[in-house]
Amino acid sequence: MPELPEVETVRRGLEPAMVGSRIVAVEQRRPDLRFPFPTGFAARLTGQEITSLGRRAKYLLADLSSGEVLVMNLGMTGRFLVAEGGRATAPGDFHRDAGAEQTHDHVVLRLSNGAMVTYNDARRFGFMDLVPRAEIETCRHFAGMGVEPLGNELSGETIARLFQGKRTPLKAALLDQRLIAGLGNIYVSEALFRARLHPEAPAGSLATPKAKPRAKAHVLAQVIREVLNEAVEAGGSTLRDFAQADGSLGYFQHRFRVYDREHEPCTAPGCRGTIRRLVQSGRSTFYCAACQR
Ligand SMILES: [Zn+2]
Asked: What's the pTM?
């Protein structure tokens, strides 16, 4: 499943092809993906200029000159293919697996700059929707969604405000999409490791009783952005090297500092601990009991 950094990489890959272009034709090849396409989907897109391409958590948001926003979610296996000037790329295609057969090409956008953007989704857990710009914050996709982890909104103060008084384990609080939106299992393990915080520590321990941030809250906010940004950078290099198509670069080849390293020595400088795995809410957490306290 694409994590937030992968979605951001897809956004960066699509942006130059899409933004500033007009959609001249839309091929919608089925009535639904995970959900039905909105009524008049192709007609509402055709003729519109794409004025910007943003992201919120794991959703892509293409602003249209009509005032509507094309909301796109990649689900489990969704991906975009961009063909322009005889060259084809698949931005953010970290996995580079098989299964991108054309039978799974569900939407094709032909743009005024000559580019062709194809949405391919083998398992069809992704979806597309059209929402008026003015209603984006309150629409069903984003109402109640937590703060964006990549960006200035996430600070030590924000973490203190969100976590104050919570006895929930830190790991669970960080995965709670109503608090912070779009953080996945891998990146939460990495961030807690870098911040030297135990995944089972109560979330409220990062805040004072008056909801002021303790030092650890500032550190955590910083390392969350750090791990996400590094992954986006890694995705960017995958994108640049796509032409090699040798499968040597990929999302899962990217070694994490703690994730999936059970029984290995801790990688923190000077630490002699061993990485352990514990299961929280049915999901693996990797941590070092020696330096994460
Ligand atoms: Zn350690």
From this structure: 0.87
